[in-house]
Amino acid sequence: MSSHAHEHQPLGGRVLTLPFLICAALVAVAGVILFQRYTQGLGAASNLNDGYPWGIWVAIDVVIGSAFGCAGYVIALLCYILNRGEYHPLVRPAVLASLFGYGLAGLAVLVDLGRYWNFYHMMLPWYAQPNSVMLEVGLCVATYTLVLVVEFAPAFLERFGIEGLRAKLNKVLWVFIALGVLLPTMHQSSLGTMMVIVGHKLSPLWQSQMLPVFFLLTAILMGFAIVVWESVMASLNFRRPMETPVLSKLAGLMLVVASLFVVLRFVDLIVRGQIGQIFGGPQSGWFVVEMVLMISGLALLIPKANRNRSRALFLSASLLLAAGILYRLNVYLIGFTPAVGPWHYFPSVKEIMVTVGVFALEIALYLLFVKKLPVMHAVHPEHG
Amino acid sequence: MSKNMMSTNKMSKSRTSVSRRGFLRNAVKGSAAAAAAACTTVVAAPPEANALVRPPKPLPPDAVGLLYDSTLCIGCKACVTACKEVNHMPPDVGPAQQGWNAGGGDKPIYDSPVELSAKTLNVIKAYSHGTGATKDAAENGFAFIKRQCLHCADPSCVSVCPVSAMTKDAKTGIVNHDPSACIGCRYCVLSCPFGVPKYDYNDAFGEIKKCQLCKQQLAKNELPGCADVCPTGATLFGRTEDLKAEAKRRTALKVGEYAHFPRGDIAGKVGGQRSGHEKLVEAAYQTHIYGEKELGGTQCLAVSAVPFDKLNLPTNVPENGYPTLSEGIQHTLYAGMIAPATVFAGLAYLAHRNTKNHTDE
Fold first, then answer.
1. I need a labelling partner for B194 at 20 to 30 A (CA). Which of A78, A199, B91, B151 fits?
2. Residue B99 · residue B173 · CB < 8 Å
């Protein structure tokens, strides 16, 4: 039997491929725009204003980007907490995706902060304001990013043959695994609580004391969906065998979580007496699109046979991801109306290019890491 | 191993895995149902019994504020100018005035703010309808409204600020902002139900700006700029309790009555004694005192003859501040960090046990 060190292998291959170079170019464009942002202020690069002080840099880069980063969270939960060993091959790629998702969400915060040079005040106890949901989110996300670094460290240590430290780390890794499940549970739900305080400014279609529950559910759902999505993409692009048997089990879990989300959404609307808002209330169209995406994504998984078809799995994961993205966008931007005065917001081209740049950086680093480090599960000849 | 045995083996194996899967499925279904039931109870519970709502915060007894009387305001905007002078704020020139208002060099010569901004902490706005002939009439009339921070009893901006840059003074109740602590996240801008705090998007080192009730003037026993210069007493300074009583007196006045209207400080202490004036009540006051109940009450109040929704103030707000809802969730889930600590202990136990089973990591 092969030693454990060979369970994961670097994919190898050229680094400077066309996708990598395109990503690098997009990162460079974002860099130029950020130079403007830091020399002339937020207004020089964005359409942010006092009616919409938070735009896509918060809603997409942080709120949606960190949900993409929930891959590591859900897989660690399945693998180590529920002791489902069959998900093991998915752990490292998922943790790596999370590391970049969260690391870059943190970077995006520095792009958006108006007084970024003070950002470390969040970490200093004498500035802390314990009622602030954002303080909890900030501290959790910062700690979780460090936890992800530790969780991913075995891949580094393995690559560079630092076996002694690796063995030591393995003995205490359970502490970090437990933190790595606790922290996202806390801050992903808090991302929902963050919008409770805007009150009447968020449409009753989304404003609810249940926001933390819905954000936790979409985090878990998007975590599963991104694992499926990424696994299929990796199999296609790196010409590896499909991981369909494992993914079909994840599909069953996606079906449960998505159904729970839909049922609770409607129960919440009925209990709050806002069900009528679906028909012709402001922004109701966006609610309908959100629900159609979610329901069609889960409906695709109801026939058991579909859960073993990589096409159906991929399509369903894409629909559920889109539904999660739209739900979060609805809460943070589309369903939000400022208090006083006519305000308008649509992201500027520069603002969009910065967001594109953040995601391009994520993809470029992911490509680099899977080629150079033992991230992907080794494909044994008897399987391949 | 015989063929027969192998198949039995396989069968028993598949049976156990089926039953385990069945168990897991039932467990998931059961916990989903329990979660759904719990969530429904939480949402359906009335606010006073709801564990996810914290009690509202009362006003400090010596809280100070302003009473703005729209029927007394003549729209002279002296308060806008005084506010800029006292707080050293730059002029704010709207796009329509840029052409003729360039002045010498960079400096515009005429200040023309139309809305609160990072350059304007106090502004007078006008409502007009139809012919705009009658003052303080909703139909074919016009009216003024003063916009500035209302200094809430339970402010959203203070509740959301992660670094204590936005604070509420325990004695005066004034909502202060400290730019040296601020990280510029603009959560205060997003959360304010009245759209008050503003950020300067055109400055690489922009600051959050809002009215701080001229705390520097009050420290010198002088009036806030706006109340100091108001010629008609439309902006009146005082203890919020006194102002509330005055607002109640005014809203009870009848059209055609003569009434006394004080100026400066309602108690005649801050900034010295001032003479008020007698005036005929020409338009019927709305009974609604803006800020008396809105979001748990505010220290700055307004009375008017024109409904407040026409004056572009939010009137669809609850009587408790939104922090009672968001902090309610937060304090329930994280009270004493007991729940997270318990969850962590459980997770750590499982992770410790289960990582031993895994060959790798």
1. B91
2. no
The pLDDT of A282-294, averaged and rounded, is: 94
* % of chain B at pLDDT higher than 70: 80
List CB contacts of A186: < 8 A, sequence separation 6 or more: A136, A140, B340
Q: Tell me the average pLDDT across A271-284.
A: 87
B355 contact residues in A (CB cutoff 8 A):
80, 170, 173-174, 177
∠A367-A369-A374 over CA atoms, to 5°?
A: 125
| ipTM attached to this prediction | 0.92
User: Where residue B100 falls among pLDDT bands split at 50, 70, 90?
Assistant: low
Taking only Cα atoms into account, the Rg of chain A, rounded to an integer number of angstroms, comes to 21
Which pLDDT does position B6 carry in this prediction? 41
Using CB atoms and an 8 Å cut-off, which of residues 309-328 of chain B contact chain A? 312-314, 316-318, 322-323, 325-328
Q: What global pTM score does this model have?
A: 0.90
Does residue A124 contact residue A81 with C-beta atoms inside 8 Å?
no
For residue B301, pLDDT beyond 80: yes
B70 token code pair: 């729209």
Give the DSSP H or E segment for B279: strand B277-280
pLDDT per position as a tens digit, B15-69:
444 455 555 555 555 555 555 555 555 555 554 445 678 899 999 999 999 999 9
pLDDT of residue B230: 96
Which helix (H) or strand (E) covers residue B166, if one does? strand B166-168
pLDDT in tens, A80-91: 888 888 888 888
CB contact under 8 A, B163 and A135: yes
pLDDT of residue A225: 95
| 8 Å CB contact between B270 and B92 | no
Residue A342 to residue A344: CA distance in whole angstroms: 7
pLDDT tens digits for range A84-117: 888 888 888 899 989 998 998 988 999 999 999 9
Q: Which of B213, B280, B286 is closest to B248 using CA atoms?
A: B286
Query: Looking at the partner chain, which of B43, B202, B360 has a beta carbon nearest the beta carbon of A4?
Result: B360
Q: What is the Cα–Cα distance from A184 to A211, expressed in whole angstroms?
A: 15
- Pick from A81, A131, A210: which is nearest to B43 by CB? A210
Average pLDDT, chain A: 91
Contacting A residues, span 22-61, partner chain B, CB-CB under 8 Å: 38-44, 46, 48-51, 53-54
Would you call B149 an interface residue with chain A, using a CB distance cutoff of 8 Å?
A: no
Give the count of alpha carbons within 13 A of A180, CB side only: 34
Quickly state the pLDDT bin for A382 (edges 50, 70, 90).
very low
The CA distance from A308 to the nearest CA of chain B, in Å, is 17
Identity of the residue numbered A24: A
> Which of B347, B352, B356, B357 to substitute to test the interface with A, most A CBs within 10 Å?
B347
- In chain A, which residue's Cα lies nearest the Cα of B36? A264
Four-point Cα dihedral A292, A296, A302, A306, nearest 10 = -170
> Rounded to an integer, what distance in angstroms lies between the CA atom of residue B142 and that of residue B249?
24
Mean pLDDT of A346-365: 95
- B chain contacts of residue A175, beta-carbon cutoff 8 Å: 348, 351
Taking contacts as CB-CB distances below 8 angstroms, the residues of chain A near B34 are: none
Question: In B, which residues are within 8 Å of A116 by CB distance?
Answer: 183-184
| Distance set, CA B344 to CA A99, A137, A241 (Å) | 21, 17, 37
Residue with tokens 């870059």: A104
Bridge-based pairing of strands B166-168 and B141-147 is unpaired
Give the whole-angstrom CA distance, residue B77 versus residue A247.
67
CA distance B267 to chain A (A): 32
Find tokens 């964005």 and name the residue. Answer: A46
Q: What is the pLDDT of residue B184?
A: 97
Residue identified by tokens 């996606």 is A254
